[in-house]
Design a protein that fits this description.
The chain is built from 3 helices and no strands. The protein is mostly helical and about 80 residues long.
Length: about 80
């Protein structure tokens, strides 16, 4: 008897309409925040790599020769360097 009442309540509600919840509303702004954060992190990383290479380039040729390949920064040079 209790089960029958339960079934009737479900059928009265009708079909569920997806895409009306909180996620649909919050995802675009969340994606926007995520893109801004990733861009900031990427820029900081590139800046740190550029600084490493500037320090390496500022060394004298003799000091570079003494340090050898182990003293050279492990990150590759930036492609968009001026």
């Amino acid at each position: 008897m209790v089960e029958e009442v339960h079934e009737e309540e479900d059928s009265e509600k009708g079909p569920h309409t997806p895409g009306r919840g909180h996620r649909r509303k919050s995802d675009p702004s969340k994606r926007k925040r995520w893109r801004k954060k990733r861009a900031r992190i990427k820029q900081e990383k590139e800046e740190a790599e550029r600084k490493l290479w500037e320090e390496w380039d500022a060394l004298t040729p003799e000091l570079r020769r003494l340090l050898g390949p182990k003293g050279e920064p492990e990150v590759p040079r930036s492609k968009n360097e001026d």
